[in-house]
Amino acid sequence: MPRFSFVLSGTMEDAHGETLTKAELEGILASMPATAVLHHHHDMSLPVVGKWANARLEPDADNPGHWVLVADGEVPEGVDPSELGKGFSIAFTAGMTRNSDRPTLALYLPFPAYNDQELIDELVNEFPDVAVGKFVKKEVNLALVGLIVASVHFVLRPLWQHTYDELIRPHWQRVLDGAKAFGRRGLRNDVRSHVQLPGRDEVRVHLIPERGNELATLEHDLWQRLLQDLEAQLTAHEAGGGRWPERVIAVYDPKRTGYHICQMTFEDGESLFLG
């Protein structure tokens, strides 16, 4: 497979006026997996274009005194990385302000909103047990899409309705409250959560709601239907000899008036696109 190195981020101010410190890059590096899938222009609804590994921090050869976060990319045979332009992308989180040692909700703001200290203070004061940080994405189209993370793990158990009403609904309501707070400020959002089936490893679930209609497409009935579909689909996938995924990406489909599981990704950076 063709291999190449590329810059994920750096301490130099980029074309959008965004900067990160070396300490922030070190923190990002420490939290990064050994390998992961490589998206193109942050579009998670499309098949990945490859995977990356060996992330490291290096001096910026073109800008003395600055640093760059670099990784090695790999794309399938027959694909020329240069034809994909500079749209290789990963997104990462950094720089937390919190009002609790164990926050149950994390609100990651996109650039340039995360430089608005007044906004950060408002959100910290608005929510109990919350952390507010940066959702860093390198892309040409700076749509104000942030990330809401439910820190609570949703464990799926028998007696579905009871499990949802008693254990899941209260925590998901916090996600909805976060989406309301984003919407009032003109911000869009994705959602990340952790789901675990009994006796199985947890799965990160990344939801992409309908843009401009985030709150309505994150409502309880849609989330509950997705959890039920996820349980059935993962169980069938494994029963058919498939590997257990590390992450699942689900996109809201207005034609189905619900979420469609479009992609599974695995710890070794491989992926399975489901359409």
In short:
This protein is of the alpha+beta class and 275 residues long. The protein contains four helices and 14 strands. The strands form two sheets. It has a nine-stranded mixed sheet. The protein has a five-stranded antiparallel sheet with strand order 1-4-3-2-5.
What's the structural domain tally? 2
Would you tell me the structural class of the helices and strands? alpha+beta
Instruction: Categorize the overall geometry.
Output: globular
- From N to C, what is the helix and strand string? EHEEEEEEHEEHEEHEEE
Q: Let me know the average pLDDT.
A: 86
Task: Please give the alpha-carbon distance between the first and last residues.
Answer: 24 Å
Low-confidence stretches: none
Q: What is the percent of helical residues?
A: 10-25%
> How do the strands of the widest beta sheet line up side by side?
6-8-7-9-10-11-12-13-14
Q: How many strands, which pairing sense, and closed or not: the largest β-sheet?
A: 9 strands, mixed
Percentage of residues in DSSP E strands: 35-45%
Radius of gyration: 19 Å
How many β-strand runs?
14
Helix segment count?
A: 4
